[in-house]
UniProtKB/TrEMBL annotation:
One of its GO terms (cellular component) is bicellular tight junction. It is found in: Cell junction, Tight junction; Cell membrane. Residues 1-24 form the signal peptide. It comes from Toxostoma redivivum. Keywords: Cell junction, Cell membrane, Membrane, Signal, Tight junction, Transmembrane, Transmembrane helix. This is Claudin. Its main location: other. The lineage of its organism: Eukaryota, Metazoa, Chordata, Craniata, Vertebrata. Claudins function as major constituents of the tight junction complexes that regulate the permeability of epithelia.
Amino acid sequence: MASASLQFFAFILALFGVFGDIAATLLPNWKVNADVGSNIITAITQMQGLWMDCTWYSTGMFSCTLKYSILSLPIYIQAARTTMVLSCILSAFGICITTVGMKCTRLGGDTDSKNNACFVGGICFILAGIFGLVPTCWYTREIISNFLDQTIPESSKHEPGAAVYTGFISAGFLLIAGVIFCSSCFKRQQGAWIYPPKQHHFPSTEQESNAGYSLKDYV
């Protein structure tokens, strides 16, 4: 029962990780630049994401521009696009596979098949967490290095946006869920290896006949 509840907790974490992963991939605020002019009325907020750049004005207007050209983008944005999409796909596969392999469901067949399904789903979650963690770290590094560069003007410097923090948290949820699923299955398999089932050996009839020989043959 404890293992089933632990798997259910990991499944909830994985759901939050999947939704956060998808939201971080689509949100346009990976880096944010607030430009406050001489008047607060002219204040604007520029946001840049993986797929579009948006500008929000203090008057309430909001406009976005899609990034159509892939080759013109920096290499870290291209890598972030690829890895985040892979993270979303792997986490979705992990949700489907662990739904079949969880102990609280009636899918997946016997116990060994469900354990294998949970293990494969946990591997998918771990890979999804790694693929989600790499682009967020790389993107944050680029933002911080540009912010600390003295040659770049202040108007061109940015700070990490909400999408970066969402990506970090989602990757952490996916990693934790994957480790829980894999460790729960591994403990059961390890227990079977350490304590194998006892095998009862019964002597054959031939051994019994040899053991019960008569002393008359030697007289």
